[in-house]
Amino acid sequence: MKSGLSLRGYDLGELLTTRRGWSLIAVALMYQARPALFLAARWYRRHIVRSTRLVAVVGSLGKSTTTRMVTAALGGDLSRATERNGGIFLAWKVFQIRRGDPYAVIEVGISRPGQMRTYANFLCPDIAVVTMVGSEHNRSLGSLEATREQKSEMVRALPASGLAVLNGDDPHVRRMARVTGARVVTFGLEPGRDVFASDIALEWPEGTSFTIHLNDARRQARTRLIGRHMIYPLLAAAAVAAEEKIPLDEILERLKRIGPAPGRMQPVRLMNGAVLLRDESKSTMETVEAALRTLGEIQACRRFAVVGEITDPRGSAYPHYKRLGRLCAEICAKVIFVGWSRKSRAISTGARQSGLPLPSHSYAGRDVLSALELLRADLRDGDVVLIKGRVSQKMERIALGLLGRQVRCRRPECKYKMIRCSRCPALGAP
Asked: N or C: which terminus of the chain carries fewer CB neighbours within 10 A?
C-alpha cells in the first residue's frame, strides 16, 4: 500500500460525480495530513489504549489470512479486520481500538524503505508476527535482504516483555530473532519449531487436515483453508494464542470455523458442477507455485488454470514464465494465459518442453473477458479451475462472470486496487 496518494490520471468526472470519487478525494486530503495523524495515533496508543495488547502482522505474503486467524484465535471480531494495511489506514485502525479491548490485531504492509519504522513508532506493538520474506517487494525494496531489513523494524520495536512469532521455515525470518530482546517463538512445517504441523492432507473441497504439535501437546486438527501453504497462518495464530494462555483445544475450535478470505484459495462451486479455486489476490512466483501444487493434489476430471502475469519476478522475467509453463504442463489439462504476448510465448515454450500440446495452451490477450468466454465454452461437471493473477488485472471478473454476474468491464489494468470488482459500479459498464 503506498504511503501517498495522487489523483493524477483519474477521470475528473468520475471523481466529482461518484461516491467512490469523493472517497478518493477525502483520502488524498488526509494523506497530506498524515504526519500529524501519525503523531495523534501514537499519542492515542500510548495514553488511551495502552493496556490493549497490539499484535502487528508483517511479511511479504500471507498477512491477511494470518491476521484473520490470529484475530479468531484470540476471540476477536473478524468484521473489524481489513486489508488496508498502510499509511493513514493504519492510523485509523489505531483510533478504532476501544478502551478496554484486550487485543488489537493489525496487518501492516509497506511499499518503500523507512515505512515500517514509521508504522512501528506509532503502533507500539506488544507482539509481532512475521509470515515470510518473499519476492513481492523486489522492485520497491530491491532484494530479499533489503526486504528482510525493512520487515525487521517491527520486530526491533518490541519491548523486552514482548513476543516475536517468527516463521522458522524461512531463513530470512529466522534471522530476525537477532534484532530483538523479546521472547521468540517459531512456527513452521518442520519438526524442531516451537509450533509445527505434520500429516498434512488436503480434503477437497472441505479444507485441510493436519496434526499440530505445540509444546508437549499434539492434536488432530482441521481447517476450512485449502492447501499446505495455508497451514502457516493457523500455526502462527496458535502460537500467539497459546502464549496468551488460551487452551489449545479452544484455539483449534475457534480456528476451524474460519473459511478462506475472498480470492485467497477460495473454492466456489458453479451451477454446472465445476469448481473454481479463486486465488486472484496476489501473483508472486511463490504464490503461483503454491497454488498450482495444491491444484495438482485435487482429484478432478480435468484441471484448468487461468493465470495472469507474475508480480515482481527476480531478474529476467522469461525463465519465470517458462517455469510457469512447465508447472502447468505437469498439473493441468488446459492453461489460459492473460497478459502480454511475449510472456505467453515463454509459457508456451515451457509447456511444450514438458509435454503439454499447443492446443491445450490458450492465449486470451490482456482481456479477462476473452478468458471468461474460453472457459464458458469448455467447462463441465467435475472440472476444477484455478484462477490466479495480479490484483491490478482484476481476474475476479472471470469468477463473477461464471457465477452469473454481468461483466462488461474490459480494462486490462485497474488502478482501483483496493476495490473488489463485486462492489464496483463499473463491473457491468462497457
From this structure: C
Question: DSSP letters along 185-212, please?
Answer: EEEESSBTBSEEEEEEEEETTTEEEEEE
Is residue 146 one of the residues assigned to a domain? Answer: yes
- Provide the whole-model pTM: 0.90
Q: Of 4-8, 16-20, 81-85, 402-406, where does mean pLDDT reach its minimum? A: 4-8
Nine-digit cell string for 202:
488436503
Residues 6+ apart with CB under 8 A from 190: 168, 169, 196
Residues 77 and 174 in one domain: yes
Residues 145 and 278 grouped into a single domain: no
Contact 332, 354 (CB under 8 A): no
The CATH number assigned to the domain holding 345 equals 3.90.190.20
**Coil, strand, or helix at residue 295?**
helix
Query: What would the mean pLDDT of 62-84 be, rounded to a whole number?
Result: 89
Whether residue 92 is contained in a domain is answered as yes
Do residues 243 and 297 share a domain? no
Q: Phi first, then psi: what are they for 305, rounded to 5°?
A: -135, 130
Give kind and range of the element (H or E) at residue 186.
strand 183-188
Instruction: Give the integer Cα–Cα distance in Å for 254 and 9.
Output: 45
More confident residue, 340 or 34: 340
How is residue 44 written as a grid cell? 492515542
Q: 242 near 194, Cβ under 8 Å?
A: no
CA distance 400 to 355: 32
pLDDT at position 6 over 60? no
User: Got the DSSP string for 113-136?
Assistant: TTHHHHHHHHH--SEEEE----GG
The total number of residues written for the chain in this structure = 430
Domain around 242: 33-255
Band (14; pLDDT cuts 50, 70, 90): low
Q: How far is CA 217 from CA 75, 220, 240, in A?
A: 21, 10, 15
Cell matching residue 321: 514464465
CA distance 76 to 101: 9
Number of domains in the chain: 2
Q: How far apart are alpha carbons 63 and 119 in whole angstroms?
A: 16
